[in-house]
Design a protein that fits this description.
Layout lengths: L9 H8 L8 E2 L2 E5 L6 H12 L3 E3 H9 L3 H8 L1 H16 L5 E3 L8 H10 E7 L2 H8 L13 H16 L4 E4 L6 H12 L6 E2 L2
Parallel strand pairs: 2-4, 2-5, 3-4, 5-6
Antiparallel strand pairs: 1-7
Helix pairs in contact: 1-9, 2-9, 3-5, 4-5, 5-6
Amino acid sequence: MREMGPEDGIDKVRAGAEQDQPVLGHLTRSIVLVGMMGSGKTAVGTAVARFLGAPFLDSDHEIERAAQMTVAEIFARDGEPFFRARESEVLERLLSGPPGVISTGGGAFLSETNREMIARLGVSVWLKADLELLWNRVRHKNTRPLLRTADPKKTLTDLLAQRLPHYSKAQVVVEAEQGLSVPDMARKVIAHLRVVDGLIEEV
């Protein structure tokens, strides 16, 4: 018997998505979306969660809710180290809850502590996007504190180069594609998740 590949899950996901109902059963562990700002973690994660009938949780939003401040405001007032500490606390809390789809900030997976925690309690999924795709998505937004520099594209380029070795340690890698709709990207992610043994239980 041949090994199952990501393409085996696509038709089944598409059939259920058209009814906007879960068709793949339920997650046995949380999946944690990692990757650069602009890779689509929030939008794609929301769609993946909907297709699987799972809760969607955004670690940045959880931090903002607890602090009653935006991420940019936390960076400005308390600095990045403070934010990263809160980020790790929130990730542990979310991973300790019921299985769901968790979107993380772009720097979360750089921490070895976070990577080990995610590997222990969930499955990491890297949404891999190239520089031009990322830049096209973030260049008109002013909500990215790390890009508030004199040359934001160079900053993004440098961040991507620094982070690639860490992102490459994710358990699942899914290539983002220019022009692919959010629902279709979610279907692509789910097809890859079906290859992970025991992650999705059929109903």
